[in-house]
Amino acid sequence: MNPAIVITGTGLVTPGGTDTDTTWDSVCAGQSAARRDLELDGPPVHLSCRVPGFDPAALLPTRQPWRYDRATQFLFAAAYEAIHHAGLDHRTWDTSRVAVVIGTAAGGIATLETQHRKLLSTGPGTLSPLTLTAYLPNMAAAHLALELGVTGPAFHTSSACASGATAIITAVLLLHAGQCDIALAGGTDAMITPLCAAAFTKMGALSTNHDEPSAASRPFDKDRDGFVLAEGAGLLVLERAAHAQARRARPLAVLAGHGATSDAHHPTAPHPEGRGLRSALTQALNSSSASTGDVDHINAHGTSTRLNDQVEAGAIRDLFSHTTPSVTSVKGVLGHTMGAAGAIEAALTVTSIDRGAAPPTANFSQPDRTTAGLDIITKSPRRQAIHLALSHSLGFGGHNTVLAFARP
């Protein structure tokens, strides 16, 4: 039997704030971070949820933060918060027994776009020599390992918008295999760029509600018309329960189980019957030795797109037909942080368990026939004792990932 895995620290950098407490307060307030974005010069959709007031020179202890892509800067800030939250000191831990697993959908895409524009406009001689080390997707994990002196496993996972959750599952497997004693796992992305905005617009994935940006992201609502592009990072500190107990760390939650499947259906659309998500949910419950009746709360993927919310709502409604877990999507406030979303939402699910409350789904006012029947939290946080919670993450390519967290 595998040993219990606990979460002892969280770190967040999101459009709701540059730490866990500020982000938590933002999602509980239910005020959307979406704004018109003048930096998205060109794409027909120019809405975004940016991280406010992020000054890498002030927030990061590392020297020369300009060497890193914005996504890596976010990751550093989240990691330092999570390590401090867990009561760890990276200057004294056994570096060979620490793992770093980071998910990202696009790596340093802003760096790539900037340098490509330089190549086309002024020639190869003007390119930064740091282009590849800032852009390549593995480099967020590599840079964090370098920053912290970690010599245990350090690598990158990519499963689109499920990347951060996939990284957390991978970290659990490393802990179970005895490859590390501490794992820093999560996700980061900074995809608010002209290319990404234009590409998502071309696919019809983004909300076009320029008249009322704060109402643009509306998960599960009948008037939803797409997501709002966002950025950020989330990180969890995971340990075997015995290791955390030995150093007298307070567990915030137990990672009780997980599930991961592929739809094998379509490059972007989820399976219309949600078969992959249902299978991942079943796996997560089975590995938690739990049933649907044990689930108190679901932090849904809830992108605010027509197809995702329809399929996800149907899977929840059918699998939990004899019970009514509360449901929320924080994307109404934070927008869609892409490869970071699974980790950010996992951290917020852990916080819900630890604080005995679940945040509302911003901008949800009326379900349609496909989202009706869910107990969606609205308007204000709900105080509730959460013994078992699920966090869903879905991604282009048909990736379905479910994390199950329990009270310690």
Automatic annotation (TrEMBL):
UniProt cross-references to NCBIfam families, sorted A to Z: PRK07314.1
Protein name per Swiss-Prot or TrEMBL: Beta-ketoacyl-[acyl-carrier-protein] synthase family protein
InterPro entries, A to Z: Beta-ketoacyl_synthase (IPR000794), Ketoacyl_synth_AS (IPR018201), Ketoacyl_synth_C (IPR014031), Ketoacyl_synth_N (IPR014030), PKS_Beta-ketoAc_synthase_dom (IPR020841), Thiolase-like (IPR016039)
Homology family: Belongs to the thiolase-like superfamily. Beta-ketoacyl-ACP synthases family.
Swiss-Prot/TrEMBL keywords: Acyltransferase, Transferase
Originating organism: Streptomyces mauvecolor
Pfam families listed in its UniProt record: ketoacyl-synt, Ketoacyl-synt_C
PROSITE patterns in alphabetical order: KS3_1 (PS00606), KS3_2 (PS52004)
Biased composition (Polar residues): 281-292
Residue span(s) of domain Ketosynthase family 3 (KS3): 2-407
Region (Disordered): 281-305
Listed SMART domains: PKS_KS
